[in-house]
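The pair is quoted verbatim below.
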Amino acid sequence: MNYRKIFAGVVFALFIGAYFLFYMQNKNSKLPPRILIAQNDAYSFYSEEDILKLSKNLSDKGFQDTEDFSKQPFVEKAVLIKALVGPAQINVYLQEPVLAFLTKGVYKLVDKSGEVFSEVPQYKIPNLPILNSDEFLIKKNRLKAVSVYLKLEKEGLLSRGSLSEVLIEDDLVFIFSGIKGRVLIQEKNFLEQIDRLSKVIKYLRFHGLEAQVLDARFGDRVVVSLKKNKVS
């Protein structure tokens, strides 16, 4: 058996295979990547119309860098998957909604960037706090509400889990389930405000008092307006 010929044949085959792979990768690098909206947990919150619109919008922009995708509305992140044969693929993962927005009798969802997306019937709304004012049509107001929401702990007395509604009067007003009265807080010194509010709420409960408003926006105290007892 001529081992030299066999060895030469194997080396030639490897060379041809390596050249083919190099050629395909070089060819594929010139092809635009395919864009796929990944079906993560957030996917189910977006309507089919929203998905199609987003896919077309991202394709039309002709992005190549995943960071460009991640800066777009509704996108949480993008992951590039290279292929030996065929174009590369970019998996786009959508942001989950953090709030729901009620305007003119219609419920929509809001992501952490303050963007408003899919309209949903009331019975399909996920367990999210409701932005209940047409003032939230203004994006900066939505962003302010989202910012406060994301600073809250996930569970507890004053938390994302207990926040049920956000209103706008002169400022943002927060309604927490299980807490009597409207709560006013601001982003500055947020954790200190939450700590003071928790102590005041526990004090009021211990003494059987009910508040109409709990305003923690002052430097070192909580201003409480007590609910007046009805005279029978």
